[in-house]
Structure formats: C-alpha cells, structure tokens
Amino acid sequence: MGTLATIEKFEINACKISMIEVQMPMALWRFASLKISDSKILFLGGIERLHWETDAVYCFDLKDELKIEKLDKISRTGIIDLPIVVDKVGNLHLFIENCNGTSPPFDVTYSFLEYS
What we know:
Blueprint: E1 4-11, E2 16-28, E3 32-35, E4 40-44, E5 57-61, E6 68-70, E7 85-86, E8 91-96, E9 106-111
Antiparallel strand pairs: 1-2, 3-4, 4-5, 5-6, 7-8, 8-9
C-alpha cells in the first residue's frame, strides 16, 4: 500500500517472497516497470510521497541487487497506467497522464537502448 521504497523478489520454484536489501532512491506509487534485458528492469514515472508527479527513471540490475541507477528523465511527469509500447527501433512509447487521470494521456517516447 502507498509508495514503494523497497523491492521484493518472488521465487516461483520455492513459492516465497524475499526482501532485497536495497532502497529505492525515491519512494514511488503508480509507476510503470518494464524488463529491458535478462537482468535489468526500468521503473518509470509515478507519484512521489507528497503526491507530486515525477519524471524519474531508475534501472534495477538483478545481477547487482544492491544498486539502483538513476537514468535520464522522461520529458513529462505523471503516471503510466496504460501498457508500454516498444516500436521497431526499440524506443518506448509511454502514455502518461496526470495523477488524477482527468487529462488524455500524452504519448512520450523514451529511449532505453544505451542502458540495456
């Protein structure tokens, strides 16, 4: 519930959840996540603790579980509730809304290829 400041790992074979000993640089809520390689996951956008929209992008490397890297920001702040589309070139198309959902979503392009 609320914002995410910790990351948990679910082990399918053991059917258990374990807490990874890393803290998010900024607690988030209503963000998007996307696996971009065998070991890397992006956390994009969302809402911070004080209900402020963010343009932050973080990369979590499963091989180096103690590190979350801050990447280039998205060009617009907000929440990403709609599915993320990857085009033929490899850019992400993020459909970003404001936090109360009253505006139509904006299509924002984000390139992640240099990080994967």
